[in-house]
Recover the amino acids of this structure.
């Protein structure tokens, strides 16, 4: 059982998904969350760099775990943020066939995508982000940290 | 708000399925009372959804988590289904807010409980309390784990 007691938001590390270059906020986001989709569009337009961390809330958005796993699997083929943009850009199409269509459009190796998104290591990678968010006090999404402090979108 | 070390006031309330739940029947296990303002409000939805995500970890520490608000059992059932959660929800419905008042968690002006957490030990004593500064502020689940680790 992992420790879920309070801890500062972890600094940006080599495992993180970083879009752009330079200083930017760390965002804990749920790929099934409409508020996150709206905030994401604003962040992409306004920030030089963004660090994306997984925070799927499965009870609220039952497809979220699958969407986060799909983004991770796309990331293994170098297309993490393209998948995130695709999922936030078209939130009504999130079933498996839609994920395959998205993967094809991004030019991914479909067999590998399927294997990777269902791998336990992928779920564990998503959960690591989620737990770091819980420890940092994330209580709703999106949660945006600037200089280690939680701010509002 | 009730203080650490005090005896937790006993109560009997019905849950989302109409079943009676008495605090005294839960002696022998730790109980986390999650007082929240109202079913279906956006902030309460976020709080209970996120707590649901770490419910297995809370239960693994021998803690039974129950939600309490002034809503009826029927509203609780619908709220539970909407959120996709299985946390037991108790109806502090009639007399309205009686249990929240007994724990000092009731806000008279707004007619519902403040967002408050009360951890009760196996013997029925209050072990830890957290009261949010305002009902709009959700206590992170990390605070629950901090209390359990203390």
């Amino acid at each position: 059982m992992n420790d879920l007691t309070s801890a500062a938001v972890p600094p940006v590390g080599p495992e993180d998904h970083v879009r752009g270059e330079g200083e930017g906020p760390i965002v804990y986001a749920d790929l099934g969350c409409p508020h996150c989709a709206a905030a994401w569009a604003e962040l992409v337009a306004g920030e030089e760099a963004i660090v994306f961390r997984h925070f799927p809330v499965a009870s609220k958005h039952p497809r979220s775990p699958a969407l986060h796993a799909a983004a991770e699997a796309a990331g293994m083929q170098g297309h993490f943020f393209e998948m995130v943009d695709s999922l936030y850009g078209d939130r009504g199409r999130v079933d498996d066939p839609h994920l395959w269509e998205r993967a094809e459009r991004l030019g991914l190796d479909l067999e590998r995508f399927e294997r990777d998104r269902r791998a336990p290591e992928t779920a564990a990678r998503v959960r690591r982000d989620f737990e770091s968010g819980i420890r940092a006090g994330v209580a709703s999404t999106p949660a945006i940290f600037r200089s280690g402090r939680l701010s509002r979108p | 708000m009730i203080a650490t070390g005090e005896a937790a006031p006993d109560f009997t309330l019905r849950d989302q399925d109409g079943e009676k739940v008495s605090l005294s029947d839960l002696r022998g296990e730790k109980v986390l009372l999650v007082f929240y303002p109202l079913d279906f409000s956006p902030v309460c939805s976020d709080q209970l959804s996120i707590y649901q995500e770490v419910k297995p970890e809370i239960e693994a520490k021998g803690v039974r988590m129950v939600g309490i608000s002034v809503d009826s059992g029927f509203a609780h059932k619908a709220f539970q289904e909407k959120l996709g959660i299985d946390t037991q929800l108790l109806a502090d419905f009639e007399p309205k807010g009686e249990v929240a008042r007994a724990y000092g968690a009731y806000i008279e002006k707004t007619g519902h409980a403040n967002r408050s957490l009360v951890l009760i030990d196996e013997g029925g004593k209050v072990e830890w309390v957290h009261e949010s500064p305002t009902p709009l502020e959700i206590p992170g689940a990390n605070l629950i784990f901090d209390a359990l680790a203390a």
